[in-house]
Amino acid sequence: MAEIETRLLMLIDDEPAQSRLITALAAREGWRTLVVRDSETAIATLGTRQGMALNAIILDQWVPGDEACTLIAELRSRRPALPILMLTTSASPLLAVEAMRAGATDYLVKPVAPDRLMQALRMATTREAPRDELQPLTEKMSGTTDFEAMIGASPAFRSALAVAAKAARGHSPVLIEGESGSGKETLVRAIQAASPRAKAPFRLLNIGAIPANSVESALFGHEKGAFPGAFERHIGALQHADGGTLALDEVDRLPLPVQERLLESIRKGDVRPIGARHSFRIDVRIIAASNLPLKEMAESGHFAADLHQTLAGATVFLPPLRERSGDIPALARHFLARIGDQPGLRPLGITDSALALLGAYNWPGNVRQLQAVLFRAAVFCDGDALTAEDFPQLSDMLGGSGHTQTPHQEGVGVMLYSPDGNLRPLEEIEADVIRLAIGHYRGRMTEVARRLGIGRSTLYRKLTELGIGEAG
C-alpha cells in the first residue's frame, strides 16, 4: 500500500473544473496530483524535489505556452522514462501519431470516462502491454460494418458468426457475450447492417460510460423538472430508436431497478419518461452486449432473471483472442491495412518473427488490444514491415520466448509434416488450407470458394465435414 500512496502525478492544465475532476479521480487510486497551469512551470517543476518524485504526467493539448507536441518532446528529453499522457478533444489519428512520435505514452479523448483514465494511468506505470489505449482512434478508423468486417477462421468464432447472421434476419432481441475487446461492438453493427431494420434508427448506449444515477434518464428520458437538475426535457434512447434498434453495451452494468423498467418496456412495447404522465408506444429491437455471463449473474441475483431470459432469445458467445490465436496473422494484416490508410501513416507488412511474437502473447485485452498495439508499432516503424523489434514491450514480457516460436500454422502457412517427421493426414492439411483462405480473404466466402476452385456449396459442405464451423 505504501507504494501506491507515494505515486505522484503532474497535471498540466489551466481548466480548474477539469483539474479538480482529474485530481479527484486519480485520488481514488492513491495518486497525489500536482497541478501546474503552463508549460514553463511544468518544465521548471521537473528539476524540483517534487519533480524528481513524479510517476506520470498528464497534459492538456491546449495548455498555454508551447504547443502540445513540442512540450511532450521537451518533457521526454528531460525525463525519458516518465509516462506522458495527452488530453484532447480531437479524435484525429494524425494528432495521435504526432503526439506519440513526440513521446506521448497514451492519448485520451475528452471527456474522459473515469475507468478509461484509471486504466491509462495503470497501463502507463506498469510493464503490462498497452491494452485499450488509442481506443477512440482505432474504433473510428473507417471500415465495413457487415459480417465481412469480422476476421477469423477458428471454429468457435465462425460458429458464433453463423448464430449472429441467422439472428440478424429476425426482430427478436440478441445477446452477445464475450470479454472486453473481443469484438462485440463490431458484431452488433454487423447484425444491425444485416437486419431488416438496417435503414431504420439505430442507437448505441454504453451503460458503463454513464453514471449510475443517469442511466434511467438516458434510457427512458425525462420531463422538464422531473428531478433536481432536469432543466430541459430529454428524449431517451428507447424513443430515439423507435422503429429501429437500440444496442446496449455493457448491459451487465445496468442497475437492477432499471432492469425491471426495461423489461416492462420491452414486454409492453412502450416507454414512460421520468416525470411523464403517460407512456409512448415504441417498436424497438434490443441488441445487448455483456462482458460477463448474464446467466451466472441471474443465478446469483445480480441480474434480473426475466430480463436475461428475454434478451437471450439468441445468444452469441464471442471467444477471446487467446482461444483463436490462429486468427492473429489475418487480423494483424487486416488492421495494418486500415491503419495504413490513416493520415500520417502508410501501409506496412509484417514479418513472421513479428507474427510469432504476437502469437506468443495471451492478449487479455483481446482484439482491441491487438489493434492498439499494432497502431503504436506502426507509428514508430521506419521500415516497410513490422518486425519483432517493433514490439519491445511484448518482447520484454515474454523474455524473448516469442522469437523462437513459429507463427501459428492456421494463419501463416500450411505445415505438411507433423513433429515426428511424418506427413500429416490429408484432411488436416485441407482444413488448414481452407482456414488460411478464409483468413486471407477476410471471411468473404464467395471469394474463398472462387480462389480454391470449388463451388460455394462445396465449401460449406467441407466446413461441416472438417469441423471448421459454418460461416455467416
What does this 3D model show about the protein?
- The chain has 3 domains: 6-126, Rossmann fold; 155-317, Rossmann fold (3-Layer(aba) Sandwich), CATH 3.40.50.300; 324-465, Helicase, Ruva Protein, domain 3.
- Strand 1, helix 2 and strand 2 form a beta-alpha-beta unit.
- The chain is an alpha/beta fold and 472 residues long.
- The protein is flat, with a radius of gyration of 25 Å.
- Helix 9 runs parallel beside helix 10 (184-193) and helix 16 (328-339) packs across helix 18.
- The chain contains 23 helices and 16 strands.
- The termini are far apart.
Number of strands: 16
| Largest beta sheet: strand ordering | 2-1-3-4-5
Q: Provide the low-confidence segments as ranges.
A: 131-138, 404-412
Number of helical segments?
A: 23
Overall mean pLDDT stands at 84
Which short descriptors sum up this protein?
alpha/beta; Rossmann fold; Helicase, Ruva Protein, domain 3; 3 domains; five-stranded parallel beta sheet; 23 helices; 43% helix; flat
In short:
The chain is α/β, with parallel strands linked by helices. The protein is 43% helix and 13% strand. The chain has a five-stranded parallel beta sheet with strand order 2-1-3-4-5, with helices on both faces.
Write the SSE topology.
Elements: H1 2-5, E1 8-12, H2 16-28, E2 32-36, H3 39-46, H4 49-52, E3 56-60, H5 68-78, E4 84-88, H6 93-102, E5 106-109, H7 114-124, H8 135-138, H9 155-168, E6 174-177, H10 184-193, E7 202-206, H11 215-220, E8 221-222, E9 234-235, H12 237-240, E10 245-249, H13 256-268, E11 270-271, E12 280-281, E13 285-290, H14 294-299, H15 305-311, E14 314-317, H16 328-339, E15 349-350, H17 352-360, H18 366-380, E16 385-386, H19 392-398, H20 409-412, H21 426-440, H22 445-452, H23 456-465
Parallel strand pairs: 1-2, 1-3, 3-4, 4-5, 6-13, 6-14, 7-10, 10-13, 15-16
Antiparallel strand pairs: 8-9, 11-12
Helix pairs in contact: 9-10, 16-18
